[in-house]
Amino acid sequence: MSAEIISGTEISKAIKEELKAEVAELAEKHGVVPGLVTILVGDDPASQSYVSAKNKTAHALGIHSEQVTLPAETSEEELLGLIDKYNKDDKINGILVQLPLPKHINEARVLYAIDPDKDVDGFHPVNVGKMMLGEKCFLPCTPHGILELLARSGVETSGKEVVVLGRSNIVGKPIANLMLQKRESGNATVTLCHTRTKDTDFHTRRADILIAAVGVPNLVKADQVKEGVVVIDVGVNRVGKTESGKAILAGDVEFESVKEKASKITPVPGGVGPMTITMLMKNTVQAARQAAGLE
After folding, report:
1. Strands 247-250 and 237-241, sheet pairing
2. pLDDT digits 0-9 by tens, 233-284
3. Which of 101, 103, 115, 229 has a CB 3.0–4.6 Å from the CB of 87, allowing a cystine?
4. Residue 78: closest CA among 61, 59, 97, 52
C-alpha cells in the first residue's frame, strides 16, 4: 500500500491563511504592520527567483515588504552599512540577506551583523545558541517547516528513532537538535549521519522517521528503509529539463520505490519546499509582535 503524501503545499497554504488573519488583527487592534526587507547582491537567477517569491508571499499576507538589489561588485562595507541602516529602521522587523553572496564578501560577518531580533532566517549565533538551549527564538525556516509538517500530519515523534542524513548548519544540525528537545514534535532519539558514517544503511533501516538533507538525487532506495517509516525529503535536485525547458526535480529519496514501504512521505516538489518561505513569514510576524511588546 502506497504511503500517505504529506503535502507541504496544502499545509503551507493553511499556515498562510492563519498568518494573514494574524497580520490583519495586528494592524486593526495594535496598528502594527510587520515589515521584511530582502537584500540580494548580484544577479544569480535562482536567488532572484527565491527573493521574488518571498516578496510576493509577504505582500499576499499583508506584510510590508522591501527588496534591495545590489550589483555583484558591492563591497562588504557597503552591505554592512545597509544592514546597519535596517537594524535601526523601526518599520522593518525582519532582515534577510539572500545567500550565497559573492566570493569577496564574508558571509559570516554579514549574517552576524544582523540584529538578532530581526534575524528571521534564524542564522545568527544568538538565535542558534538559544535554539540549542531550547529557549524562545527564531527557528531556522526549513527545520521549522519540518516540525510543522510532522505535527500537522499527526506524526508522533516522542520516543521514536529519528535518522537525519546530512549535517549542514541550515538543515541537518538544527533539525537533529530540535527533534531531541523536550517539545512538541521532539522527544526523539536522534542519529545524525554524514559522509564519514561507517554504515549509513544500518541507521536508515532503524529509522521510524527519516529526514534526508544531503543534496544527492535518489540516494535513498527502498531497501534502505523499513516498512512504515515516515520520510521527510528535503532534497531539491535538478536532474534534467523538459522539452519546454522546465527543470525536472528529484529529492534525495527515490520516491516511487520508497513510497511503497513508507507510511507517510513528502514529495519533491511540493513537500518541504513550500514550507520554508511560509516559516520565514511566521518568523517575521513573530518579530513584529516582539518589537511591539505583544509576545
Report:
1. antiparallel
2. 999 988 888 888 888 899 999 999 999 999 999 999 999 999 999 999 999 9
3. 115
4. 97
Domain 30-116, CATH: 3.40.50.10860
Asked if 252 is an active-site residue, the reply is no
Q: Which one of 16, 115, 118, 121 is the catalytic residue? A: 121
| Catalytic residue of the set 16, 54, 173, 282 | 54
CA torsion sign for 180, 148, 152, 2 is negative
Q: Which three cell numbers stand for residue 218?
A: 535518489
Please tell me whether the overall predicted TM-score, pTM, comes out greater than 0.90 for this model: yes
The rounded distance, in Å, linking the Cα atoms of 251 and 269 is: 8
Q: What is the DSSP letter of 130?
A: H
Spans of all domains in the chain: 30-116, 141-273
84 catalytic? Reply is no
The three three-digit cell numbers of residue 158, written as one number? 516522542
pLDDT tens-place string over residues 183-195: 888 999 999 999 9
Are β-strands 64-70 and 264-265 bridged in parallel, bridged antiparallel, or unpaired?
unpaired
Question: Measured between alpha carbons, how far is residue 39 from residues 36, 58, 73, 86 in Å?
Answer: 10, 14, 14, 11
Residues 224, 194 contacting (CB under 8 angstroms)? no
